[in-house]
Amino acid sequence: MENLKKPFVFLCAGMSLDGKLSNYKKECSAISSDNDRKMLYDYRVIADAVMIGGNTLQLDDSGLTTKSVERQNKRVKLGKSSEPMKVSVISDANNLKTSGDFFNKGNGKRVIFTTKKTLQKKIDEIKKKAKVFILGDNWVDLKKALEILYELGVKKLMVEGGGTLIYELLKDDLIDEINLKIGDLIIGGKNTVTLCDGEGFDKLNVKKVKFVKITKKPNFLILKAKIIKN
Ligand SMILES: NC(=O)c1ccc[n+]([C@@H]2O[C@H](COP(=O)([O-])OP(=O)(O)OC[C@H]3O[C@@H](n4cnc5c(N)ncnc54)[C@H](OP(=O)(O)O)[C@@H]3O)[C@@H](O)[C@H]2O)c1
């Protein structure tokens, strides 16, 4: 871990007061509309790349852009490309459609990390729109993925979710900072995606954070925290 050359990894997500990232129908719009995702788009300005899990790619199919020319200009002033690279992790990409916004909207470069479960024919199709890396038989080695991103010039990686990808990254101690917009709503649902899903951590492996800042707005809280590394 000490020698791992990886980007600075920061999470940016919107969640309900009860920690949900979407509702039981997996509608992300249940948390916030396109109009009030300003914080998300602003954070995309400072990111070299934005990473999402395979379910988020397929369910939300976002173009992962900064959504405005002003933000694009800010990026260029910072010496970055006008839009961040888009990255997704998906173990089995055989049903992944390459006709949507992730693959076609905006001019951010695209990277897919997948496994040997994805057939060569599908890899060839995805390769027409993205760089593809096969990193494992059944599950992607995320440390390796982050090393590759670092080699591709990604020094700041923004992770947007969902709950499975966030758990996988936290498990491997790969997240450095958490930025959350906490909405004034409770969504419920025992099977609803939360900020951190997966199998969960036992007492010895629980992840600790240091709260850095909380900002109170009329309808939401903004929270910044650093992950305390063991
Ligand atoms: N509110 C927000 O800010 C926000 C942000 C992002 C997403 N969301 C919501 O989150 C929900 C999706 O969350 P989710 O937890 O179901 O899914 P997810 O984390 O987006 O994606 C999970 C999938 O990613 C792949 N994956 C993750 N880690 C992997 C690894 N190490 N190796 C290989 N594959 C890996 C797997 O793909 P396979 O299925 O191929 O195995 C896994 O099933 C959506 O409803 C979305 O709207 C909300």
UniProtKB/TrEMBL annotation:
Keywords: NADP, Oxidoreductase. Residues 7-216 form the Bacterial bifunctional deaminase-reductase C-terminal domain. InterPro entries: DHFR-like_dom_sf, RibD_C, RibDG_C, Riboflavin_Biosynth_HTPR. GO terms for molecular function: 5-amino-6-(5-phosphoribosylamino)uracil reductase activity; NADP binding. Pathway: Cofactor biosynthesis; riboflavin biosynthesis. It holds the Pfam family RibD_C. GO terms for biological process: riboflavin biosynthetic process. NCBIfam families: ribD_Cterm. This is Bacterial bifunctional deaminase-reductase C-terminal domain-containing protein.
